[in-house]
Amino acid sequence: MTTKKFLPISFLLILFFSINLFSYAQTPEYTISGKVIDDEMGVPLEYATIAITKPNDPDFITGGVTDLEGNFSISVPAGTYNIAVEFISFETKNFNNREVNSNINLGTIVLGLSSDSLDEVVVRAETTQVEVRLDKKIYNIGKDLTTA
């Protein structure tokens, strides 16, 4: 009597798990790829950041970085995404609400220098100065802690 109840339950469990596995296998993944270069020099930007987010799901975020030749390739499931390409001291390039239902090649993405860059940098340092006179040498040590 227990074997008769066990057989239908085990059949239903196997059917349930196979349907779940089949549904996971049906979720296609597509590739977003491209190349990132500098606007002025035309050289590839290595280690530029590509951030991929869903507009309606703030918890979903993925992405990657470019390789030595400035190329990137990121796999994502089908859906609508915001894509941001960033690099330090360069302007961010945004591709909003891109529908991904096949492999997408964004082509060559050209990033220009950001207008928020520093205008100038001033470096100040004290050096050890030695004055040589006829009867003596004068060492002006200043703030050099290694000679103090």
Beta strand %: 35-45%
Mean pLDDT: 81
**Which CATH-level-2 architecture of the domain at 16-111?**
Sandwich
Ranges where pLDDT stays below 50 over 5 or more residues in a row are none
* CATH class term of the domain at 16-111: Mainly Beta
Number of helices: 1
CATH topology of the domain at 16-111: Immunoglobulin-like
For this structure, what is the CATH homologous superfamily of the domain at 16-111? Immunoglobulins
Distance between the termini: 96 Å
Please give the number of β-strands. 9
Rg is 30 Å
Name the strands of the widest sheet in spatial order. 3-2-5-6
Shape: elongated
Helix content: 10-25%
Order of helices and strands: HEEEEEEEEE
Largest sheet, if any? 4 strands, antiparallel
The assigned structural class equals alpha+beta
Which terms summarize this structure?
Immunoglobulin-like; 4-stranded antiparallel beta sheet; 1 helix; 3-stranded mixed beta sheet; alpha+beta
Set out the fold topology:
Blueprint lengths: L1 H24 L3 E10 L10 E6 L2 E9 L5 E7 L1 E8 L6 E8 L3 E8 L17 E4 L4 E4 L8
Parallel strand pairs: 1-7
Antiparallel strand pairs: 1-4, 2-3, 2-5, 5-6, 8-9
Brief overview, please?
Helices cover 16% and strands 43% of the residues. By secondary structure, it is α+β, with helices and mostly antiparallel strands.
